[in-house]
Backbone:
């Protein structure tokens, strides 16, 4: 059985939909230049689902607003904050009400997808039903289409 | 204040604009903002919207500078937001039309001058909706309880997106008649039903019985990969004299224009045809809108 090193202090994101672990890391801005231990374990056997991905990030406690963006990729993921090798806090991700600069509008005719549009930040707002409205083109999309 | 989407306006604000439009029509020619300069930035073709805005601006005493996308620095690769920032430095008002949805909102974000949306892709055309409301008010004196049938390509026509929203806001009974595949966006229908508690009927058969307003729009041929299919749909959805059998005597037919075969030419000569009057109402309504953004 594959063993992944425990982290002393940091964040473990569990129950990520299989195959989406890399996307979660991208969303959190964790890249090859990150200085501490990062583990991405894919296709782990799971009781709840057939397979899942797990991400372990040492050295940071990922903040709630950022954590909730993970819900866009995997709405059932859970966040474990690890302090001194123990789980200090555990909760499920929640879709945020507002998304600023992290999502791309799926509407190809939205000005935000025009290469020559210039300087702007994308903003999406949700009515709390898992659907988001682009503040520019006013179209509404399911969260899964935004990332 | 900017006017970007009809959804940004409250009922009281719309009512104020409509009352002001009536005054503007009576006092046409008043030069109430003569020290100001506006820019009409039409990045895509327009006849009625551009000319009626330029007329409205002129009648208010405002000077305007015009813009042609193909002769501008856009051709040199200047970004949209940079173009807007530059123009913003010269004028007191920006009126914009652009093929990209959300462009007017983005312009309003970067400009300090008020921005009025003259149509952004398939999204919004708020000033058209306001002039439609003004026309209906002039013709019928009310909105609540009016039976309004919107006919045509309800999927792509931005006019219809804005119109269904305001008609619902004012309590009209709405029927949506469109060919299969060109129905109005379900999210928008859901939104207006939830917000305003209106009933909206959807059908694919033209029926004028009991209608007070028939609002037609063109089938947007440019959106079809098969021109023959577009032509067939347009023929099927054209309003002909025979469709008007059983219509109320005071039925009013409206159209944002240009009409390209959706309404039989014969109908132009009947008392039902109100679309040229509607187009004319674009001037006092846009005068009222410009005056409103300067005052708020």
Residues:
């Amino acid at each position: 059985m594959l063993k992944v090193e425990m982290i002393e202090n940091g964040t473990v994101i569990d129950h990520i939909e299989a195959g989406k672990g890399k996307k979660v890391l991208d969303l959190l801005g964790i890249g090859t230049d990150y200085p501490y231990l990062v583990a991405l374990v894919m296709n782990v056997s799971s009781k709840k689902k057939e397979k899942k991905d797990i991400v372990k990030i040492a050295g940071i406690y990922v903040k709630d607003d950022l954590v909730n963006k993970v819900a866009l990729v995997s709405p059932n993921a859970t966040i474990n904050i690890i302090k001194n090798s123990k789980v200090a806090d555990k909760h499920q991700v929640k879709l945020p009400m507002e998304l600023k600069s992290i999502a791309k509008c799926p509407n190809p005719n939205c000005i935000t997808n025009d290469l020559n549009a210039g300087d702007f930040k994308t903003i999406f707002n949700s009515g709390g039903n898992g659907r988001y409205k682009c503040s520019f083109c006013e179209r509404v999309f399911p969260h899964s289409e935004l990332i | 204040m900017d006017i970007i989407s009809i959804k940004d306006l409250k009922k009281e604000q719309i009512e104020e604009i409509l009352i002001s439009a009536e005054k503007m029509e009576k006092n046409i020619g008043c030069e109430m903002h003569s020290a100001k300069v506006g820019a009409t930035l039409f990045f895509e073709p327009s006849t009625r919207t551009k000319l009626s805005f330029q007329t409205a601006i002129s009648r208010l005493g405002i000077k305007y500078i015009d813009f042609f996308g193909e002769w501008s620095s856009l051709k040199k690769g200047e970004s949209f937001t940079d173009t807007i920032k530059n123009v913003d430095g010269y004028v007191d008002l920006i009126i914009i039309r652009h093929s990209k949805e959300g462009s007017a909102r983005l312009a309003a974000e970067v400009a300090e001058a008020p921005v009025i949306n003259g149509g952004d892709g398939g999204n919004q055309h708020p000033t058209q909706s306001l002039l439609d409301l003004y026309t209906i008010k002039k013709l019928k004196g009310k909105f609540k309880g009016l039976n309004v049938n919107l006919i045509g390509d309800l999927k792509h026509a931005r006019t219809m997106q804005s119109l269904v929203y305001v008609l619902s806001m004012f309590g009209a009974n709405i029927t949506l008649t469109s060919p299969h595949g060109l129905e109005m966006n379900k999210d928008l229908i859901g939104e207006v039903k939830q917000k305003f508690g209106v009933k909206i009927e959807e059908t694919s058969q033209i029926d004028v019985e009991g209608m007070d307003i028939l609002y037609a729009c063109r089938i947007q041929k440019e959106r079809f990969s098969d021109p023959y299919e577009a032509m067939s749909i347009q023929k099927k959805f054209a309003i002909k004299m025979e469709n008007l059998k059983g219509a109320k005597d005071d039925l009013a037919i409206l159209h944002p224009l240009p009409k390209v075969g959706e309404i039989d030419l014969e109908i132009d000569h009947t008392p039902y045809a109100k679309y040229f009057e509607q187009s004319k109402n674009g001037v006092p309504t846009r005068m009222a809108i410009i005056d409103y953004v300067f005052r708020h």
Notes: Strands of chain B lie at 37-42, 63-68, 93-98, 115-120, 147-151, 173-177, 200-203, 213-216, 252-254. The first strand of chain B starts at residue 37 and ends at 42. Residues 152 and 178 of chain B are 5 Å apart (CA to CA). Chain B has a mean pLDDT of 92.
